[in-house]
Structures are given as structure tokens and as C-alpha cells.
Amino acid sequence: ITVFCASSNGFNDVYMSTARETGRFLAEKGIGLVYGGGRAGLMGSLAEGALEAGGEVIGVMPDFIVKKEIAHLNLTQLIIVESMHERKTKMCELCDGFIALPGGYGTIEEMFEQLTWSQLGLHQKPMGILNTNGYYDHLIAFLDHMRDEGLLKPERRDMLLISNDLGELFEMMRSYKTPNLGIWMKREDQT
Questions:
Q1: Of the candidates 78, 82, 81, 75, which has an alpha carbon nearest to the alpha carbon of residue 52?
Q2: Cα dist. 27→64, 74, 112 in Å?
Q3: Per the confidence metrics, is the pTM higher than 0.70?
């Protein structure tokens, strides 16, 4: 599972503890963790949780970030790539699904790129949000607004799996079936 999350701690300790619990949960289920490779913030806590439980942890990090000395050096494997785009491509190749924990611009961008790739038929992997402490409530409301305004089809809105419980989210991801989106854009949808 690829997990996207913040490289900072945030102000609420629940984010760090949830990241560590997520890493431990995956390791205990025998599921390898793929993530951004950082040692700080939620990223570091996530990796430590998995490593402490004996899990496999693969970090994927661009060279220019490694040079800033923020890479976690005790991982099962650290894959160094040239660019952010190559990073996201590699993280997608290495996983069977994605989870977003609390994060900033990078986390949001990574999550939406994977949803877009799925919508375009580039992969059929589930994308889930672990909505810790209601962190994503406003984003979820915005996505519902997009759907309600007719700019996001309901079946595409439903591609994003959401739960505040990790076990429940994991089960949702296990049973996920990519919706049949048919033709991506019909002539009458074009403007």
C-alpha cells in the first residue's frame, strides 16, 4: 500500500500517532508500505510504526530531496529517482492501493493525481482517505459540492473511499471494484 502524508508533525498529536498505527497495522497484516521516504513528521512516524512491527518499508525519494538529508536511512529499501513525477509513477507501480493520511499540498496533489489516473483507466487501484480527527471533512464537503453542481459524476466521486477507521477503510479497499466509467468523455460533455 502506498501512503501519502505530511512531512511535518501538525499541531495535534493524534496525526503522528495515527501515522505510526497505520504503519504498524500494515506490517501486522503482512502488507508492505511504500511512501515518500522521509524521516520527519507523519512520514517518519508511519515508517517507524511499520519497521517496529517488522514490516517491509520502501521509500521513494527524488535525489534533490535526498541531498537535503531528510531521507529515512533505515528502510528496507530507499529508491532514489530523478523527479517528483518519477517518484509518483514508481510509488504507483509498487502498490496495490493508496491511503492518504493528513498532509498538505503534496499529499493532496498525490491523492488527486492517482484518482485522475484511475479515472483515465491508467490503473484500477483503490484510493482511500483515513479521515483522522475529521481532517478531511472540508475537502469531502467540497467534493460533494462538485458532484452536486454537476462537475463531478457521482460514480467518480464514489471512487474515493473514506473512513475515520483504519480497519474499515482497509476492508473497503479490499472489496473495491473500479467502476465501469465507459467512455471517459462523450461529445455532449465537451464544452
A1: 75
A2: 29, 16, 26
A3: yes
